[in-house]
Amino acid sequence: MKPMAAEKGRITLAHGGGGRLTDQLLKNLILKHLPHQAVLLDSAVLDATDRKTAFTTDSYVVSPIFFPGGDLGKLAVFGTCNDLAVVGATPVALSLALIIEEGFELEALERLLQSVAQACREANVKIVTGDTKVVARGQADGIYINTAGVGKISPKARLGFERLETGDVILLSGTIGDHGLAIMAQREGLRFDTPIVSDVACLADLTCALIDELGEAVKFMRDPTRAGLAGVLVDVAENCDREVMIHEDRIPTHSATRAAAEVLGLDLLTVANEGKLVAVIDRPFAEPALNICRQFEKAARACVIGEVGGSHSPAQVVMTTTTGGQRIVQKPYGEQLPRIC
Amino acid sequence: MKPMAAEKGRITLAHGGGGRLTDQLLKNLILKHLPHQAVLLDSAVLDATDRKTAFTTDSYVVSPIFFPGGDLGKLAVFGTCNDLAVVGATPVALSLALIIEEGFELEALERLLQSVAQACREANVKIVTGDTKVVARGQADGIYINTAGVGKISPKARLGFERLETGDVILLSGTIGDHGLAIMAQREGLRFDTPIVSDVACLADLTCALIDELGEAVKFMRDPTRAGLAGVLVDVAENCDREVMIHEDRIPTHSATRAAAEVLGLDLLTVANEGKLVAVIDRPFAEPALNICRQFEKAARACVIGEVGGSHSPAQVVMTTTTGGQRIVQKPYGEQLPRIC
Hints:
Two copies of one chain form a homodimer.
Chain A: H1 20-33, E1 43-46, E2 53-60, E3 66-67, E4 70-71, H2 72-85, E5 89-101, H3 106-123, E6 126-135, E7 143-153, E8 169-172, H4 178-188, H5 204-214, E9 218-222, H6 228-240, E10 244-247, H7 255-264, E11 278-281, H8 286-293, E12 303-308, E13 317-320, E14 326-329
Parallel strand pairs in A: 5-6, 10-13
Antiparallel strand pairs in A: 2-7, 3-4, 5-7, 8-11, 8-12, 9-11, 10-12, 13-14
Helix pairs in contact in A: 2-3, 2-5, 4-7, 5-8
């Protein structure tokens, strides 16, 4: 039996065959980085509890795989944790399914798995089940990762579009567009004095603190990934059938990110974020909510960017611009930035 | 806004952008076929119970996508249900994550989603969360599907390698190799008088009946997919540190499948199945177990193919061949049949 080194540091079709070489890949590489996790199991047994369970999935196909501030592995863990977090859940267990292109470098896979393991430690979540498939050269682009997640929903969470009312405030946890522009700047070879760094981060500690301390005063949460802040706010307006009013000058941005967006002709409102929270909060609890955010470095620049308007106006998002004009914010039609997450 | 028909019946990068066109794809196509399911939600809330939960994932990359007896959609539902079934769980909820190549035919996607919906009805399971990504031409091969699954484990289930003892019997629910050979025959353009049809099927009703009626007399279950019957039996032998003895003449096969395996030089023991069960049963319960199997059409040819031997022999699988010889059955080393599931 040939050792893995003889395969010249590359994934082969044989690594995905379910035979000895798959066993070796699992034991020598995957379990090396995830030693306390049970990726070998086809099914995982989770502890029973009497709380409601959240369940989510996402495939991650970002290109390039390694980017300033993160990589595909970190994104796959935090992205799925964030989907659980915004429904008021504490992430408990993740699955990890890899689709790998023949010829992908083992060294890169190793780096990704290290990153997955580190992200799991940070998010206090475990990978409990997994799967690995290999496809031929030209049938994928390096590696794609799917993670599904299970979480326990806080009994204090009462989240939903139907709870939104006129006067509720829109809270944003920090700068927008950093993830999308970090990816695009790297793809385009743009360089700035201050590098653009992806904001990829786990939001679960922040969301849990908000729900824990403010309970039902937190009415809605979402992380603005694909389609960006615009996508979330348009969903809010349409689903609560009210106008949403925001102020451009209150939306935090990094100057390098703004500059890159201008060069590339992108609207930061529609660019993906991977570590930001949009929350709709009952107005009297706006200040307490901001104070909670500011306890977290990743939400240090949290602010109220607008509010839910009346139901007499059209269900749309209206932004007061820095020059005092008004602009209707729309969801992007299609794909601006392919493979951004 | 252009209607989807204007896109010439093909998936575009824009369908994966998270914007309007993604909404349209979800509303006009995915929810059309899965109307009672909540694929629109990023996270799903499952009913709480006091039972143990099983959680599993698998990516499905089979080529061709449509094959005799099934397709990628059916496989993605039943395959994940089967992973839950063999740990003693009733499948409750699935996630559905699609990675689609730009240019993939919408008509084919529609057929796959119909198939997913039909399979969910048969398996009495719901898709509760989903994700869709599109990658550029040449970055996937048509479509890949990941499903993760959550199931409730029967309180009567007591399954595990550690329970296996000398004298336990090995039960196989029917013919082997049909899935792998159906795929390979189609790829190679082989034709037989009797077509080879994949055995893809949901095993959960069968496994639940076994656990329900026989309880802890069912000691271990596995569906022999990649690496086939050989893979499962070698795992059994190594994990219970005992010899496993089987009889070639007791293993059911279809004649067309056997013929195709001969033409292609494949060992049926190592070929993937997608609707077969291997169960290790406490010997006194062998007949009751077979009687339960025979109530299901898909397990009508169930039989006892061997037994767990003593711990004094090497932990290997020994097969008495049809000619009376003995052969050591080994797990395949690498990949025989790429993208078989």
